[in-house]
TrEMBL record:
It is a multi-pass membrane protein. It is found in: Membrane. Its main location: membrane. Gene3D superfamilies: 1.10.287.70, EF-hand. This is Two pore calcium channel protein 1. Belongs to the calcium channel alpha-1 subunit (TC 1.A.1.11) family. Two pore calcium channel subfamily. Keywords: Calcium, Calcium channel, Calcium transport, Ion channel, Ion transport, Membrane, Repeat, Transmembrane, Transmembrane helix, Transport, Voltage-gated channel. Homodimer. Residues 1-20 are annotated as: Disordered. The keyword Repeat applies.
Length: 542
């Protein structure tokens, strides 16, 4: 195994030893670490596409050793900064509970009884699945649903307003996302109050509609980054989409009016185009070619020249307008996606710039630290020794190869485009990007690291080597292929009504149970050699 860059120990070892100056999480390094530890954590965050809020990067006291990720400037200047930082870190540690609550909100939509079930006058209840095809999930009673919804709503309120404790009211209410969340939360609370009154015996007699199921889905989207980004892209495309749809609607209205006037006194007009509304509907269906050529057969029987109008309509509608819609929508999607990529790139550059400014803040390797800053307080360049210290800390997050000091001097000279033996911000950004592309991130240690006597034993090391080897994958693939062959043979014999099907059916059942065991065994082996969270991130769609 290659040793890390300019260091005598590997990344995994550095994590497990637990030195006094080492931090397991990037947030701790940013909050409590040295300038080099903070800079390394920022570089790793930037290259992972994760940035800090604009309010954090732009404030002048970000470089203080006691800074915290995501905390507003006003809070940092107070005497109770340590307690505020703990609140933020406590908030991020509860991400599992927040995520679980949002999944519970969505699941509630499938478990709560529909309102029309309360008003049903038939002899069948909603629980009768033979009469109502509503799935096999059990419905909650009114009060069970109320308790379920109340618990999830309380957790949702805590999650929504908790950032006030470390951000402050000014920063919190300035963000449109927080404002929209609070607005949706008020709608949920109001809807729940009306639902309580409806369930009570002396209040509302009827409740025609509940908006809560839709707001729960909105909250689910708002709090998942990928879904929120996709929603922003779709919202940005809305104007272009409406313009294209308006053009298509205008074409349909005009073509329908021409057809209605043209075939008014013909057999086509007497049978199919009896009114403008009917003509509009028939031409809309023809736009999808679902009733082609049935819709224009009566006109074709009268005169074959009439078919030219319908052929021209289909050519323009199906082959021109549909392709135009696809091209315009796709171009708009690319534009909105490019905006998001540009914003992420700007965020990464700001984070790298802040890491650049953090280096050698105390002038460890410089005789005149102030000369490294311009009039606005930003760093002009960093020295070779500072880069070495940065890479030592960055090795805790990415596995860097063993590089001698002489080799690093050659690398430094190659990166020094200006030839002044110093690296400026642009050269520093190129270097960090090269590291992110070339070197992989260090795997999170397995949970079994807490039992080092077992985890690092000879048997355990041999088992980990076998799991990482291609043989383990070959065995798993062989089991899957045998199971597939068994299913194909059993299905073929079933179609042919062959008596040998029973034997293969039992064999398929055995392999089916073995397939489930194989799945659990494979995932246990992955957890054994790496952290379960990292395994989930890598194999979420496996």
């Amino acid at each position: 195994m290659e040793k890390p860059l300019l260091s005598g120990e590997s990344s995994g070892h550095a994590r497990s030893v637990g030195r006094s100056a080492s931090f397991r999480r990037r947030s701790d390094a940013i909050a409590y670490g040295s300038p080099y530890q903070k800079a390394a954590a920022l570089v790793d965050l930037a290259e992972d596409g994760i940035g800090l809020p604009e309010e954090i990067l732009e404030r002048p006291n970000f470089q203080s050793a006691e800074d915290g990720i995501g905390l507003p400037e006003e809070i940092l200047e107070k005497s109770n900064f340590q307690s505020v930082a703990k609140l933020y870190f406590f908030y991020t540690q509860l991400d599992f509970i927040w995520s679980l609550n949002y999944f519970a909100l969505v699941i509630l939509n499938f478990l709560e009884k529909p309102l029309w079930c309360y008003k049903s006058t038939t002899a069948y209840s909603c629980s009768d699945r033979d009469y109502y095809f509503l799935g096999q999930l059990p419905y909650l009673t009114g009060w069970e649903s109320l308790i379920y919804e109340g618990i999830t709503l309380v957790i949702l309120i805590v999650h929504t307003f908790f950032p006030l404790s470390y951000e402050g009211a000014r920063i919190y209410w300035k963000r449109p996302l927080n404002q929209f969340k609070v607005f949706c939360l008020l709608i949920l609370v109001a809807d729940l109050l009306f639902y309580i009154l409806y369930l009570s015996p002396v209040a509302l007699d009827s409740l025609p509609f509940r908006i809560a199921p839709y707001i729960r889905v909105v909250f689910f989207i708002l709090n998942i980054r990928e879904l929120r980004s996709s929603s922003v892209i779709l919202a940005g495309m809305l104007g272009t989409y409406l313009n294209v749809m308006a053009l298509s609607a205008l074409f349909l209205l005009f073509a329908s009016w021409v057809a209605y006037v043209m075939f008014e006194d013909t057999q086509q007009g007497k049978t199919l185009f009896t009114s403008y509304g009917t003509t509009l509907y028939q031409m809309f269906v023809l736009f999808t070619t679902s009733n082609n050529p049935d819709v224009w057969i009566p006109a074709y029987k009268v005169s074959r020249w009439y078919c030219l109008y319908f052929v021209l309509y289909v050519l323009l509608g199906v082959y021109f307008f549909t392709n135009l819609i696809l091209a315009v929508v796709y171009d708009s999607f690319k534009g909105e996606l490019a905006k998001q990529v540009s914003e992420m790139d700007e965020m990464r550059k700001r984070t790298l710039e802040k890491a650049f400014n953090l280096l050698d803040k105390d002038g460890v390797f410089s005789s005149s630290p102030s000369s490294f800053y311009d009039l606005s307080g930003n760093r002009k360049y960093i020295k070779k020794e500072e880069c070495i210290e940065l890479f030592k800390e960055l090795n805790k997050y990415r596995t860097l190869p063993k590089i001698t000091k002489e080799e690093f001097e050659l690398i430094f000279d190659e990166l020094d485009d200006s030839g002044d033996f110093k690296i400026n911000l642009d050269e520093f950004t190129d270097l960090c990007n090269a590291i992110a592309l070339r070197f992989q991130k260090e795997d999170t240690p397995s949970f079994f690291e807490y039992c080092p006597s077992f985890y690092h034993s000879r048997f355990s090391e041999n088992l980990k080597a076998f799991i990482r080897s291609p043989k383990f994958g070959y065995i798993i693939s062989f089991i899957l292929i045998v199971n597939l062959v068994t299913v194909i043979i059993e299905t073929t014999l079933d179609i042919e009504n062959n008596s040998a099907q029973k034997v293969w059916q039992e064999l398929e059942f055995v392999f089916g149970k073995g397939l489930l065991r194989r799945y659990f065994l494979q995932n246990f082996c992955k957890v054994f050699i790496q952290n379960a969270t990292l395994m989930w991130l890598k194999d979420v769609f496996s």
